[in-house]
Amino acid sequence: MKKILLIFTGGTIMCTTENGIMSIDENMGAYLVDAYKKTSGDDSTEFEMMTPFVMLSENMSLALWNRLVKMLAGVDFEKYEGVIITHGSDTLAYTSALVGMLYRHTKVPIIITAANKPVNEKGSNGLFNFRSAVKLIKEKRYPGVFTVYEQVYLSTRLIPADTYLDRFSSYGGEPFEGVSENRLKKPRERLIDPDITLEKSITVVNPYPGFDYTSVNLSSRPAAVLHTLYHSGTACTDGEGKNSLISFIDKCKALDIPLYLCGTKGRGAGIYESASRYIDKGVSTIDRISDVAAYVKLLIAYNQKEINPARYIYSNVFFEML
Hints:
Elements: E1 3-8, E2 15-18, E3 21-24, H1 28-40, E4 47-50, H2 62-73, E5 80-86, H3 92-102, E6 109-113, H4 126-139, E7 144-148, E8 152-154, E9 158-159, E10 169-170, H5 181-185, E11 202-205, E12 224-228, H6 245-255, E13 259-264, H7 273-280, E14 284-287, H8 291-301, H9 309-313
Parallel strand pairs: 1-4, 1-5, 5-6, 6-7, 11-12, 12-13, 13-14
Antiparallel strand pairs: 2-3, 7-8, 9-10
Helix pairs in contact: 1-4, 3-8
């Protein structure tokens, strides 16, 4: 019987609490496996453990992502029944999207999971999530990358949890909206070599009423800029002053920095007059995709060298586009 590979990266699922402060305890990986065996009645499953780093996920960086990417690139997936990556919840959606897009072609399940509280505390969902991840691997229903947090999500559609109830959701509503079992089971070819190095940055601009576009510093020359929109696919396009997206579009063009708008409704949808103004400027848009997935997709597209970035950006890599 093949083993399940466990990759521990830290997060609450590897924390203990002392004097009201949660911090990483590297012994919690072994504790989690032991608790699983004691509560599941599963004595036959063998686990192999790897740890590229341990940290609270709010401290995630491109450098740490690169360490995870390099570790995954060195894994012989044929040796394993599946892979489980334990992670912190704060940046769970981002790492889920990253792994989901890089490993769209995987033939074994890769499951990313987390916890709301340390596993050894009352009310923690960590052990439940871990058991669910193991079960999903053993069912052998779908290849691909999924996130398990009280339910199963497509990794590229996960939306970060809200700050009050700490509940995750899925872009598009239902976790598998529009994706049939046949689509999930269908083999997917590799688009790019997943062994990439994330060096070039993406700047994200999130507007709000009164937003001053002159506050966006592009002197670092990001590879591209991602600009989110209000839910109607709109932004302030009134005039060409410092509060108008129109002026920012012109600035990016003058600096030859690609600008992408995320949150547009796509073809066939009615648009507001304000949206028609940025469309008239010929700006690039990414339709029907979450802000998180769009950011990760641009990051990958501009840090790989195999295909034109536009081809990657406008491919539905792993169900992220509805």
